[in-house]
Specification:
Order of helices and strands: EEEHEHEHEHHHHEHEHH
Distance between the termini: 24 Å
Strand content: 15-25%
Number of strands: 8
Shape: globular
Largest sheet: 8 strands, mixed
Radius of gyration: 18 Å
Strand order of the largest sheet: 1-2-4-3-5-6-7-8
Number of helices: 10
Structural class: alpha/beta
Length: 320
């Protein structure tokens, strides 16, 4: 999927497989119980290292490419287990927060860096929060992007209500929105990968502030989205780190789109208020995919956050 601004195709395998930060695609064998599972990650750009964990769970990693950040950062994109060419867990119920943080830590250990900037989007933000709490010494800076400190009944009820409002606003011009709530609440683990992908592509306009006004721009990205069904079968305790958030020690940026229907300002402000010294940036007229809808503003916010002395050794300027 080629998102605007232009993404440079990555070499696969990596240009220098012997270097863990060589541009391209890398594979690490990770011990998980009695199994060795292949974990892939992708490297693009130049500069200080920022690891990006995509959402879902189960959405293909490449929607999260951030070409503007790649001008200033070495972006390391995790391809989560259960998706793409990364390995599959022996039991689909194992796709839970503990597993994702385990594989993320394996990649960070493989990179052999004392600390990194960590960016988590949506469900990837759950992973990033948990990782920053469990491994504070390894996280130099934390960027929590369109995510929440909690899920559960109230979280999902809010998302459904927001989607219902979206459907009412757009029903006259786009009658297909009547199916969107059913898509959001579907049991994806009961579908094939193709079936789960069809659901994601169907409801994708909800993730934008103005999808149909910019359909020529966003349509190809929508058709490039890929969803893998198995990770939706994961089992584990409900996600709720609200009481733990004051223990995050890394400088933290909370980024949220002002019209994000699923991980919107309500949840972002919970994080902002709980994490000591956290900064909050709200992107206007933006949904759940600010790096796609407002790439310049998104990149500028990240660059401004990482600029202060001590977060990185060399200056990082927003793109012109």
């Amino acid at each position: 999927m080629n998102l605007s601004p232009e993404s440079t195709p990555l070499p696969s395998p990596a240009a220098d497989p012997g270097s863990p930060l060589s541009p391209g695609t890398h594979t690490v064998a990770v011990r998980y119980g009695s199994s060795l599972i292949e974990q892939r990650y992708h490297v693009a750009g130049t500069g200080p290292v920022c690891i990006a964990h995509s959402g879902g769970p189960g959405i293909g990693w490449d929607y999260l490419r951030m070409p503007l950040l790649e001008r200033h950062l070495t972006m390391v994109y995790i391809e989560p287990v259960g998706t793409g060419a990364s390995g599959r867990l022996p039991d689909p119920r194992g796709y839970n927060l503990a597993a994702y943080t385990h594989f993320l830590h394996a990649v960070i250990e493989h990179l052999a860096l004392p600390e990194v900037a960590l960016l988590g989007h949506s469900h990837g933000g759950f992973v990033a929060q948990r990782y920053a709490l469990d491994h504070p010494a390894r996280v130099a800076s934390l960027i929590l992007y369109d995510t929440s400190p909690v899920t559960g009944e109230e979280f999902w009820a809010s998302a459904v209500a927001n989607m219902e409002r979206f459907a009412r606003r757009h029903a006259a011009g786009h009658p297909e929105v009547a199916t969107y709530v059913a898509g959001l609440t579907a049991r994806l683990d009961r579908l094939t990968d193709d079936g789960a992908t069809a659901v994601l592509r169907t409801i994708a306009p909800t993730y934008f502030f103005d999808y149909w006004g910019r359909e020529e721009e966003f349509g190809p990205a929508r058709q490039g989205l890929r969803m893998y069904a198995a990770p939706s079968a994961g089992e584990g305790p409900p996600f709720d780190v609200r009481e733990d958030l004051p223990g995050i020690t890394a400088p933290t940026l909370v980024l949220v789109g002002d019209t994000d229907f699923i991980c919107g300002q309500r949840w972002a402000r919970m994080i902002h208020e709980a994490v000591p010294g956290a900064e909050l940036v709200v992107l206007t007229e933006t949904g759940h995919l600010g790096h796609v809808e407002r790439p310049e503003q998104f990149a500028a916010a990240v660059a401004a956050f990482l600029q202060p002395a001590g977060r990185y050794r060399r200056p990082l300027q927003p793109p012109a």
